[in-house]
Recover the amino acids of this structure.
């Protein structure tokens, strides 16, 4: 990297590519060439930078100036200002929200300020397709140390002492898992990586595999050494072609560099690593199903015990770890368990990566110390709720997790605290919801997912999730019955206690937590046939409150169905027969004069009183 | 040992036992629908959940191991609640059509619902669309009744090694369907029917015949192969309607093959004999018992006086009971005064006995159905045991699953080659050469037991083996040297071994030389004779042999294999044997022995032929007198299986027409001939058998002895007859008896010539077209089936089907060996 005066670290993560990074790159290169800067300044494509919300983004090294929302049109100006005139280009910098002052340095931007990057340490800083760049940032030193200076027991001890817990969802102590497998005698053992990442909307693992594939491989080499495995697989879903490509390149580079294969780094240790592309069923992320899947069989979970540490892949002792878990390993080996524990809490040490999405201003990939309060994540890093709306809940743990309400926002993010809410830490999905969300519909969304992804093996999950889903559909479509809430809770609890694998054991969580914190929403759906968020079409009517309406006509223009009539400066009116319940007017009106009333409501005046309270 | 407490009861079990097994063993019931002890734990039905003290989560007892100090509760309000919910969920799409379901009354789902279920369900509307039912010839699947316990899929795959059923789809819409294609084409073992806890899988032949509670169930022994499985027959109003295996019942422990399950209806064939028949003016016409017996006794007496006792001989039956066979030989020896008695064993079991005596100095070879378990290496030589001895082969598959290294030498693909660790694809009939080659490698590498050098004829063995270098053996067998050496080393280096093959009249790739080569290998490694497992072929092959149905001296105490009387080969193939009368009980040599033409000529030349059988067989059609015998289900008695275990066969239905048990016919005949052989009833016979055979088990032991054999090449294919014809049984049949079963006929009803695609192409033969098959000896017409399981240059046929007359193609046997022959196959042009 040193050859150049400046490196333009352009994010080529999926988010930025979607917002135009490829075109920006072409424009940058063209411009640099035109200006004769090609020899001095280079464009490096990096993995996801995390700040997807402002993409395409780029940071300039070594000065660490951060540019966002790049466009092809702005590129000539940027090159001219920054690289010819030496004046960083303010227009494309992050603006502090209040006074709109530009913040040039990445580390000063609030989105980055509260984060601590360990897993994501290399994101945006290296070209993931070049092993030299990984090595330049201390890469493979940990592997070398583990292979040549440490015994298996020592490796396991450091990891155990670090308190590292599996990031794949269950939070099982990684060191302990390794210890179990290391104690089983067997000539053949397997070290496996779980890159299936099936949670809808999650992209933590994909980002790590794309941005820093060598970190995962290094973690696997160390794990293999710890349990004395000589073969490994990285299980990646086939829907992640870029991750597959990068990992494949990285593996080949490792073989060429003697970091994989026979006698790694002359240590006498052998380790072969392959990629297995999964067909993409959610349940294949479950460890026993994942192993069946690698064996070429139908990916269905099997009862445990026997645990994989005893009988895993092809009935041989195996360890399966999540991508993020593995990416932490090299750091712990290099810096020690004490360093690792310096962040986080007693039972939840270190940092955790989250995919922050939903109704926050800054969506993206973030990494924070364990124990960071939810409020900090949502308001400081996430920049608060979009359009100044009201926060309603944050969903954690995806389809296995639950919704945490406003009253619990000061909760520190740790395994123990999250579980108490009825949600789970999960793999790191964090979806923020505002008052536009209907919680019954949210529960239904997740149940649709789990019912669809249930492998169909065990009865409670196969039939039970389908019935839960059908009942939620009934409630959202106006067929809810008095005792439905009780039945939902009762059946949910039975499914949780009796299902075979983690999928069924957690699938009802979204229902239980929404009932727990948003019971009134269920009740109004069932007894008043009223979805107050206006999401369930069968359970709402949109009205314009004549007293509040200023007659600005914004809703009239926005309505795609031309259901609104009215003259300028006079109260407008919605023609119910034409309304398609799209919520556009509700979101457009600046004066809060659109009201959502129960299905079939005819007397707005009477109902309005109630909505105001 | 593990100590735990279940429902306050202290229990001790072996390590590795699951909680469910521990409970069941101690008479504690835990409901379950997806557990079967033959299968690996599945954990899908969730009914077997239990509470463990100190643990908040519930344990699925079928898949949780019992641990020391565990305190388990199997029936608490919490558990009842869960089970209720689970059943309620199962019933969401189970149609509750019990009134029209055969399973009702013995349905696990029904029973559990009765025990746990609530009378109402909270979830009525939610059903899935089930795919159309699968209707096969013998097995029917009604998917809407299926609760997806997966047992059928697993028994078929894990246990039966077939994998004909699969779970299709995922989640709620999952269904069980044939794994390949729309119709179920499989082994038709019906194991899936027995294991299905609901009425989703049912046997077609018995469908809608009787409600379970009207069936009276009786156990008896299967009349087909030498395994000796226990059949539980379901009888209603004097008719057998079905047969099934019951868990843990009998030596088969509930396993059955398709023959045992569906083949019993051969006793209802139209072909059954109902009265005696006497040939008058060239026609067989009905006669009374009296008439028939008088006629026989007169003729036999006449021949005895005219040509002497030794001109009369008899053939006994591997299908008849010990008592029947005992009576036949007693009749021959005590009434006629002749040792001319033998059976089809001459083509199989007798050869094994002979080899045993020559090699180990022991008589009476028995196998153990469980011997495959725990063997490091299992070596199967040119034998399709999954067809000849299905339940024995299940144990081989299970042993393989549990870690045995399975080497299979065979010229065609079979279930065993598919599951094997190594498949030696040898040319047909070259097993002896292969064994010689293996011994040569062992000797050259010095891997044998030095002690054996001093055994008798070791030097001769060494000398003979000189010519069996790997190169030479590979030339003969068609293997490459590496696979030969790998197999030899795997075999010899194993700490425990089993070598198994089958031998019978319906196969033509092995003979005495093959068995001797196998005994040499056993001796060379100083293994116990038990290493070699050669199962007796039919339900009572071993019993008949033991009863003295063989041409030994009638002083039964002499046990050496010294034929005194004439054996089957003499009787049927030697024109100069001076036999004038033949009494055949329960066998059909015309169809099942080699060279039908020769046999027919021999039988026609006899002065007097009596055939006593259950049906009018091709052989019976040539007889002077035909006597109607009762079938296996119509009489009491015993069979001795390949393990040497004598098991009771019961009369479960009334005899057909005027038929009588064979032993009774012979008793009556003896009386008619003026000789009371002192037998009144079955007990008399059994007592007599017990006292006269008590010496049997004391073996004389001499030194193990080598009997070097050379591989003799079979007829070599040439331009004119380019294909080698191999004779093998098909799975659904056993001898020719099973072809009279309507049920089995639905699956395979005619002899098929299996031919490789390339060979077929060369001759312009299409799948399922008629072909003309000729050897130097004869010609037959068959239907061709193109099969990639068969290697180029070979064709496979079976001898079960009377009309096919396959045996016309074969040469008369020499030394009990029905040799391989070459054939040409031509397409039949339809005008
Ligand atoms: C239905 C289901 C889906 C899962 N999917 C994933 C996944 O996509 N990625 C993952 O790392 N772990 C997943 N897990 C968790 C894995 O079973 C396993 O616990 C994890 O990969 C172990 O790695 P860790 O100890 O590093 O967390 C899933 C579990 C269940 C029950
Ligand atoms: S009858 Fe036997 S082979 Fe056929 S599907 Fe059932 S278990 Fe499988
Ligand atoms: S058909 Fe019967 S055995 Fe097979 S899965 Fe369904 S219920 Fe179980
Ligand atoms: S034929 Fe053999 S394996 Fe099949 S059921 Fe009868 S005895 Fe058992
Ligand atoms: S018997 Fe244990 S889950 Fe079915």
């Amino acid at each position: 990297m040193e050859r150049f005066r400046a490196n333009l670290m352009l994010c080529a993560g999926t988010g930025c590519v979607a917002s135009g990074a490829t075109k920006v790159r072409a424009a940058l290169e063209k411009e640099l060439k035109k200006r004769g800067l090609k020899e001095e300044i280079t464009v490096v494509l990096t993995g996801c930078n995390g700040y997807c919300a402002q993409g395409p983004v780029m940071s300039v090294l070594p000065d660490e100036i951060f540019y966002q929302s790049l466009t092809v049109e702005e590129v000539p100006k940027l090159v001219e200002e920054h690289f010819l005139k030496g004046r960083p280009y303010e227009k494309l910098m992050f603006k502090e929200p209040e006074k709109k002052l530009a913040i040039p340095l990445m580390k000063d931007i609030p989105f980055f300020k509260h984060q601590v990057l360990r897993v994501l340490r290399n994101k945006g800083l290296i070209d993931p397709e070049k092993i030299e760049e990984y090595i330049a940032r201390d890469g493979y030193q940990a592997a070398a140390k583990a292979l040549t200076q440490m015994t298996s027991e020592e490796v396991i001890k450091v990891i155990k002492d670090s308190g590292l817990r599996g990031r794949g969802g269950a939070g099982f102590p990684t060191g302990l898992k390794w210890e179990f497998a290391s104690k089983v005698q067997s000539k053949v053992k397997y070290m496996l990586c779980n890159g299936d990442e099936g949670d809808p909307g999650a992209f933590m693992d994909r980002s790590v595999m794309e941005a820093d594939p060598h970190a995962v491989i290094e973690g696997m080499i160390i794990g293999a050494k710890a349990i004395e495995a000589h073969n490994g697989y990285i299980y990646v879903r086939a829907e992640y072609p870029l991750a597959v490509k990068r990992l494949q390149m990285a593996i080949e580079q490792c073989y060429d560099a003697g970091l994989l294969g026979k006698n790694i780094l002359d240590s006498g240790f052998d380790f072969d690593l392959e990629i297995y592309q999964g067909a993409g069923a959610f349940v294949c992320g479950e460890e026993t199903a994942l192993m069946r899947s690698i064996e070429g069989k139908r990916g269905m979970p099997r009862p445990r015990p026997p645990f994989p540490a005893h009988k895993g892949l092809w009935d041989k002792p195996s360890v399966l770890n999540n991508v993020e878990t593995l990416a932490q390993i090299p750091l712990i080996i290099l810096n020690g368990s004490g360093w690792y524990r310096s962040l986080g809490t007693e039972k939840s040490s270190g940092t955790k990566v989250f995919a922050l999405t939903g109704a926050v201003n800054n969506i993206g990939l973030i990494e924070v110390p364990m124990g960071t309060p939810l409020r900090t994540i949502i308001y400081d890093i996430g920049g608060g709720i979009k359009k100044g709306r009201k926060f309603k809940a944050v969903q954690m743990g995806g389809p296995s997790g639950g919704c945490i309400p406003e009253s619990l926002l000061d909760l520190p993010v740790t395994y123990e605290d999250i579980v108490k809410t009825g949600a789970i830490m999960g793999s790191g999905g964090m979806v923020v919801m505002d008052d536009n969300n209907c919680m019954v519909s949210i529960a239904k969304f997740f149940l649709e997912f789990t019912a669809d992804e249930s492998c169909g093996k065990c009865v409670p999950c196969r039939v039970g999730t389908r019935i839960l889903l059908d009942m939620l559909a009934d409630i959202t479509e106006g067929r809810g019955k008095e005792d439905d809430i009780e039945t939902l809770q009762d059946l949910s609890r039975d499914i949780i206690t009796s299902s075979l694998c983690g999928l069924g054991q957690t699938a009802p969580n979204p229902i239980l937590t929404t009932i727990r914190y948003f019971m009134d929403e269920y009740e109004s759906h069932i007894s008043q046939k009223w979805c107050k968020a206006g999401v369930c079409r069968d359970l709402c009517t949109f009205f314009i409150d004549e007293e509040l309406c200023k007659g600005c006509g914004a809703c009239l223009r926005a309505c795609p169905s031309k259901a609104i009539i009215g003259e300028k400066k006079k109260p407008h009116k919605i023609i119910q027969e034409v309304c398609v319940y799209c919520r556009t007017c509700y979101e457009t009106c600046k004066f809060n004069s659109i009201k959502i009333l129960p299905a079939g409501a005819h007397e707005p005046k009477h109902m309005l009183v109630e909505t105001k309270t | 040992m593990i100590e735990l407490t279940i429902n306050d009861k202290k229990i001790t079990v072996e390590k590795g036992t699951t909680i469910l097994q521990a409970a069941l063993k101690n008479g504690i019931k835990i409901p379950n629908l997806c557990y079967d002890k033959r299968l690996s734990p599945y954990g899908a039905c969730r009914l077997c959940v239990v509470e463990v003290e100190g643990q908040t989560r519930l344990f699925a007892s079928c898949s949780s191991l019992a641990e020391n100090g565990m305190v388990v509760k199997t029936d608490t309000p919490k558990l009842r609640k869960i089970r209720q919910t689970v059943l309620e969920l199962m019933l969401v799409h189970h149609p509750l059509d019990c009134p029209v379901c055969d399973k009702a009354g013995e349905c696990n789902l029904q029973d559990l619902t009765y025990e746990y279920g609530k009378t109402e369900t909270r979830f009525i509307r939610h059903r899935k669309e089930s795919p159309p039912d699968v209707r096969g010839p013998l097995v029917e699947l009604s998917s809407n009744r299926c609760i997806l316990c997966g047992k059928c899929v697993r028994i078929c795959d894990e246990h039966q090694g077939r994998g004909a059923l699969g779970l299709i789809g995922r989640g709620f819409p999952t269904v069980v369907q044939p794994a390949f294609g729309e119709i179920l084409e499989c082994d038709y073992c019906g194991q899936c029917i027995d294991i299905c806890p609901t009425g989703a899988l049912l046997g077609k032949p018995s469908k809608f015949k009787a409600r379970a509670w009207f069936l009276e169930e009786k156990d008896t022994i299967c009349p087909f192969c030498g395994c000796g499985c226990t059949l539980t027959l379901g009888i209603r109003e004097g008719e057998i309607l079905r047969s099934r295996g019951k868990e843990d019942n009998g030596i088969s422990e509930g396993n059955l093959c398709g023959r045992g399950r569906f083949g019993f209806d051969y006793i209802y064939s139209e072909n059954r004999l109902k009265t005696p028949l006497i040939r008058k003016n060239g026609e067989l016409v009905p006669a009374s018992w009296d008439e028939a017996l008088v006629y026989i006794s007169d003729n036999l007496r006449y021949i005895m006086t005219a040509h002497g006792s030794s001109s009369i001989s008899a053939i006994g039956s591997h299908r008849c009971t010990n008592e029947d066979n005992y009576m036949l030989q007693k009749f021959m020896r005590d009434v006629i005064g002749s040792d001319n008695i033998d059976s089809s064993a001459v083509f199989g079991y007798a050869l094994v006995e002979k080899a045993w005596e020559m090699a180990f100095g022991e008589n009476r070879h028995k196998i153990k159905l469980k011997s495959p378990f725990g063997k490091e290496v299992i070596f199967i030589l040119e034998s399709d045991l999954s067809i000849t001895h299905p339940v024995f082969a299940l144990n081989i598959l299970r042993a393989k699953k549990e870690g045995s290294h399975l080497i299979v030498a065979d010229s065609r693909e079979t279930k065993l080659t598919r599951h094997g660790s190594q498949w030696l694809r040898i040319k047909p009939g070259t097993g002896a050469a292969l064994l010689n080659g293996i011994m040569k490698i062992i000797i050259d590498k010095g891997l044998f037991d030095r002690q054996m050098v001093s055994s008798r004829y070791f030097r001769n063995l060494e000398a003979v083996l000189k010519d069996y270098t790997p190169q030479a053996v590979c030339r003969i067998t068609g293997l490459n040297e590496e696979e030969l050496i790998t197999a030899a080393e795997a075999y010899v280096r194993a700490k425990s071994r089993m070598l198994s093959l089958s031998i019978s009249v319906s196969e033509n790739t092995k003979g005495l030389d093959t068995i001797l080569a196998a005994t040499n290998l056993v001796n060379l490694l100083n293994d116990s004779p038990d290493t070699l497992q050669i199962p007796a072929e039919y339900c009572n092959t071993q019993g008949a042999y033991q009863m003295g149905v063989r041409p030994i001296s009638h002083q039964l105490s002499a046990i050496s294999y010294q034929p005194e009387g004439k054996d089957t080969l003499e009787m049927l193939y030697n024109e100069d044997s001076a036999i004038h009368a033949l009494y055949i009980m329960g066998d059909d040599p015309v169809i099942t022995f080699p060279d039908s033409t020769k046999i027919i000529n021999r039988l026609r030349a006899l002065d007097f032929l009596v055939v006593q059988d259950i049906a009018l067989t091709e052989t019976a059609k040539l007889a002077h007198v035909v006597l109607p015998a009762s079938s296996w289900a119509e009489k009491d008695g015993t069979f001795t299986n390949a393990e040497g275990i004598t098991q009771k066969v019961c009369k479960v239905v009334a005899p057909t027409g005027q038929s009588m048990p064979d032993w009774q016919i012979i008793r009556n005949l003896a009386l008619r001939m003026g000789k009371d052989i002192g037998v009144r009833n079955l007990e008399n016979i059994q007592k007599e058998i017990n006292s006269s055979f008590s010496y049997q088990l004391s073996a004389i032991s001499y030194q193990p002895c080598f009997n070097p054999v050379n591989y003799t090449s079979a007829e070599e294919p040439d331009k004119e007859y380019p294909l080698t014809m191999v004779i093998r049984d098909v799975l659904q049949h056993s001898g020719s008896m099973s072809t009279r079963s309507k049920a089995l006929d639905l699956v395979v009803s005619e002899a098929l010539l299996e031919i490789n695609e390339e060979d077929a192409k060369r001759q312009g033969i299409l799948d399922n077209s008629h072909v003309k098959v000729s050897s130097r000896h004869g010609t037959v017409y068959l239907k061709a089936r193109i099969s990639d399981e068969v290697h180029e240059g070979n064709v496979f046929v079976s001898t079960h089907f009377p009309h096919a007359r396959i045996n016309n193609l074969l040469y008369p046997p020499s030394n009990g060996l029905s040799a391989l022959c070459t054939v040409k196959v031509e397409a039949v042009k339809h005008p």
